[in-house]
Amino acid sequence: MSSLYSTARVRNKDLSSYWQDTISRTFVPCVTTLPRDFRGAVSVSEIGSISCHRVQATKHHACRSAADISTHHKDVVLLNLITSGMARVVQDGREAVLRKGDFAIHDATRPYSLFFDTAFSQLICQIPRSLLKQRLGSFERYTAVRLSSDEQVGHLTSNFLLNLSRFDNSVDPIMGERFTAQTADLVAMTLGTQLGSANVSRSTHRSALLYRAKSFIETRLRAVTTAEVAEALGCSTRYVNDLFADEGTSVGNYVLSRRLERCREDLIDPINLRRVSEVAYAWGFNSIAHFSRVFRARYGMSPTDYRELHAANGGAS
């Protein structure tokens, strides 16, 4: 952890302003209500587009209101993973009571409250909201819902997040973005598996199916058809196309987008020394001319120019 904030040396009369400022700077602006004997510490690290915060504190209450949101909009989702004690997460008319090993998400773009009724420790991961929306569609129904690490996918996710939080800020940017994508995948998978069998709305069911379709495509990105996706989901090809139409795209366009992104990642990876044509063929393109044309349309330059520009900029994306 590269940054550490603690009340250990803060005078009692300054505790409230210090902690509120710390929470507002490291997370999002909110109002904290503290007892006179409050104590707390936060350590922070950045991995790709995700920030991980380890928090240890005594009991208190935090609230993010519509006024806080209007003055400081931050398009992120926060995941609370309890490592000791307990917490309550309240949002969208629901309350999740979390104990050791449990976790839940809340959306920083809408009001929420956090209640810590005892001393506690937790890991908070701040995830770009767009990443979960890409995987789950509308995810309002997933906020303030208890997720358990006793379940297989939940256990995998919680262990991954705890290990991720031990990295420092020296993680290579390319690896950092890969960790970011893996985090979003695991969190979305946990939400889908633990809540997918519940009695949820049709839109939530479609979002879960769409996530499963995308996950299937990701494992077979080099060669995949709509019929194969439909067979994996146990539905018709027409229904699969309807799922992707909900996001304004099609199976073919989604596959093309993901192949281009994989090629882009390989082209800027300093360890990957394959030629442009080899990269294209590796990710399912059968024509270099076609690959060059669609790559230029997406990124504004040829694959070769994109690689050379990235190298000239010292690896900056």
Automatic annotation (TrEMBL):
Annotated GO MF terms: DNA-binding transcription factor activity; sequence-specific DNA binding
InterPro entries documented for this protein: AraC-bd_2, AraC_XylS_family_regulators, Homeodomain-like_sf, HTH_AraC, Tscrpt_reg_AraC-type_HTH
SMART domains: HTH_ARAC
Keyword Nucleotide-binding: no
UniProt KW Lipid biosynthesis keyword: no
Alphabetical keyword list: DNA-binding, Transcription, Transcription regulation
Domain HTH araC/xylS-type residue range list: 211-309
Protein name per UniProt: AraC family transcriptional regulator
UniProt organism field: Eoetvoesiella caeni
Upper lineage: Bacteria, Pseudomonadati, Pseudomonadota, Betaproteobacteria, Burkholderiales
